[in-house]
Amino acid sequence: MVQRNRHWRFISGSLAFSALMVSWSVATAADQTSALPSDAKICLNCHKPQANNLRGHWESVAMKSSSIQLKVDNRAEILKFDKSKLQVLNTGEKGDVEKQLRSIKKGHEVRIEYTEKDGSKYAQVVSSKPPVKISDAEKISSGDVEKLVAQGPQKGKYTLIDSRPGPKFKEGAIPTAISLPFPQFDKMVDRLPADKNSLVIFYCSGVTCNMSPGSLQKAKKLGYTNAKVFVEGMPEWFNKHYGVTLAKDFKDAYKDMPFVLLDTRKPAAAEKGFIPGAVTFTEVDEKSLKSLPDKKMKAPIIVYDADGTENAASVAAKIAEAGYANVVVLRDGIAGWEQAKLPVATGALATKIVFVPKPKPGEIDVEEFRKYLTAIPADTILVDVRLPEEVKEGSIKGAVNIPAADIDQNLAKLPKDKKIVAYCNTGTQAEMAYHTLKAKGYTNIHFLNAKLFFDDGSVEISK
Which of 22, 127, 155, 303 has its CA 20 to 30 A from that of 3? Predict the structure, then answer.
């Protein structure tokens, strides 16, 4: 009897310890989740974190699964919502929640107030960031900025200041601008002109950005009497004109993103030394413009010549005039690149432009996915995250149907030792399912970022 009691106490103790470990692991996961930043870094320049609020950039909405995807820096947050209860603010649309949500452009700053239930976030309020409020007397128009930049600071008698964080300035700034980031304003006031009656123009990331208006107020407190804000800022400038950066800054700013690099020098000069990856592009005409990536891709186009004084600016201007955004000139050219002691290639330059957009995290190659149409490997689970009524119109043989909105409630059907591949009709819900599972600890998870069409048993895939 004593031995049996001892044995029972041992089992009870083991069970208690196991329960404690499970409780600890759940609590740890919850702590890690709650420890994640609630606000994108750029939002912290003007806002303080609030409980049960997320601030970031709008990615997408899926009405079929009643889900929202918000980007908080490099992290995606998936929130569910009840259309009948959700409040949407500052969109310009009224009444219809779907129209309000769909009117928010990808990349726009958004604040989402939420509640939590069963491990999921439920959006209660979606507040699209409204344009900054600033008096007309404190504004300067795009046309006036264009005229001043064409004249230059000495003739135009102005100081143009980029209030964005330093890394953004390195990606490309308005010609003649200097960097004075709003977050470091108080430590860098020596960059302001000595004459407090001279024209000082601040700009930042567009009509909703508070950094240039904030810089304006700081400058006025310091006694500057003729300070203005170019409210539309860099987005407006990039839509019509080229930006500029230094060669060494280009190296840092674009190290993790794809781009097109154009060398505008004559081949004989360029072959003696060029930036690796550059394509020869000496003039702009109908044929050369057609060789550039589709405008919808918004590929960064970097242009350079010998030292920034030759034809790079004119080539870039013509490309921008043709409707290409994100065109940037290296204002010190290959000379600046060599001065920074960066690697130089020699010989014949490439003549064909190849631009491959960076795939999204978890995105599966279309050709690899096509193989699943014939047979799904034993170590793979193909998940159709569409609604059941959509699946009735056609599906892939062997796929498991778990609607995106319900995937966090069906984890038992998705073992973590299997490769999980999600798909839907457009890629939107599949991407949300991917991020939901990533947040639940899945590591071998992928999604198809493409459109699927089902017709009489056949499946068509298009990007």
Answer: 22
14 and 49, same structural domain?
no
**How much is the average pLDDT of 13-37?**
45
CB 419 within 8 A of CB 434: no
**Structure tokens given for 158:** 């102005």
Examine the domain organization and report whether 94 and 115 are in the same domain: yes
Q: Which of 339, 356, 383 is the C-terminal boundary of a domain? A: 339
C-alpha 69, offset from chain centre? 12
Strands 120-128 and 279-280: unpaired
| Cβ–Cβ < 8 Å for 328, 172 | yes
Do 251 and 333 belong together in one domain? yes
Q: Are 424 and 459 in contact, with CB atoms under 8 Å apart?
A: no
Residue 34: strand, helix, or coil: helix
Residues 6+ apart with CB under 8 A from 362: 431, 434, 435, 438, 445, 446, 447
CATH code of residue 288? 3.40.250.10
Strand bridging mode 120-128 / 75-81: parallel
Tell me the one-letter amino acid at 368. Answer: E
Number of domains in the chain: 5
Q: Are residues 378 and 453 located together in one domain of the fold?
A: yes
Find out whether 45 and 211 touch, Cβ atoms under 8 Å: yes
pLDDT, tens digit, for every residue of 73-98?
999 999 999 999 999 999 988 889 99
Distance CA 73, CA 68 (A): 16
CA distance 164 to 173: 10
Tell whether 326 and 247 lie within a shared domain: yes
Domain-located, residue 3: yes
User: Looking at 24-177, which runs of residues are DSSP E strands?
Assistant: 53-62, 67-72, 75-81, 87-89, 109-117, 120-128, 158-162
Nearest CA among 94, 251, 252, 234 for reference residue 177: 234
Determine, yes or no, domain membership for 436. Answer: yes
Confidence of residue 34 (pLDDT cuts 50, 70, 90): low
CA gap 360, 255 in Å, rounded? 16
Do residues 246 and 335 both lie within one domain? Answer: yes
Is 146 a domain residue?
A: yes
Please check whether residues 31 and 52 belong to one and the same domain: no
Neighbours of 360 (CB within 10 A): 13
Exposed/middle/buried for 394, CB within 10 Å: 0-12, 13-18, 19+? middle
Nearest to 65 by CA among 463, 452, 435: 435
For 135, residues 6+ apart whose C-beta sits below 8 A from its C-beta are none
Q: Is residue 169 one of the residues assigned to a domain?
A: yes
Q: Which range scores top for mean pLDDT: 4-13, 156-165, 452-461?
A: 156-165
In contact, 408 and 436? CB cutoff 8 Å: yes
